[in-house]
Amino acid sequence: MAEIEIKFGGVNMKGYEETIEEMAEDFIEEHKEELTEIIRENKDRTEDYIYEVIYQEWDLLDKIHEYLDGGWYGFLRSDFLNDCKTELSSCAKLLELVRNPEDDYGLWEGQEPQKAIETQAFFSVRADLYFTIEKKIKKMINKKR
Predict the structure, then answer these.
(1) How confident is the model at residue 145 (pLDDT cuts 50, 70, 90)?
(2) Strands 6-8 and 11-13
(3) Which of 4, 19, 15, 28 is nearest to 135 (CA)?
(4) What contacts 24+ positions apart, CB below 8 Å, involve 111-118?
C-alpha cells in the first residue's frame, strides 16, 4: 500500500505507516534487554529457532497485544486520524489504511456493529504492528549472531 500523505494547515503530518514504524521501535526499545538476552542465550541456534523462542516461549503476540491495548485510545487520536470525530470514524479510517485487515470474524462475532468495527480495527492494526516488529526482531537476531 502506498503511504498516504495527510496535510493539515499545509503541514505534512505523520501517516499510518510511520506511526506503526514508530510504535514498533518503541516496543523493541521497551523490550530490548529481554530480546537481547533470548538472542544471546540461543546464539548457537538457527535464526528460525531463536524467533520461535521469542514467539512461543516469550509470547510475542500477547506482549504486542498488551502494548497496543495500553495505548489504543491514544492511537485512535493519532495525528493522521485527527479529522475523525469519533472512535468509530477513526476505526473505519484505520480499516482503509491497514496492510493486513483482520478477517477472523470470530473475534467480533456477536458484538454490536460499532464494537465489531472497533475490534476489527484493533486486530488489524495489531497484525500490521506484529509484522513490523517481526522484521525488526529478525534483524536483531541476524545482527547479534
Answers:
(1) low
(2) antiparallel
(3) 28
(4) 114/88, 117/88, 117/91, 117/92, 118/87, 118/88, 118/91
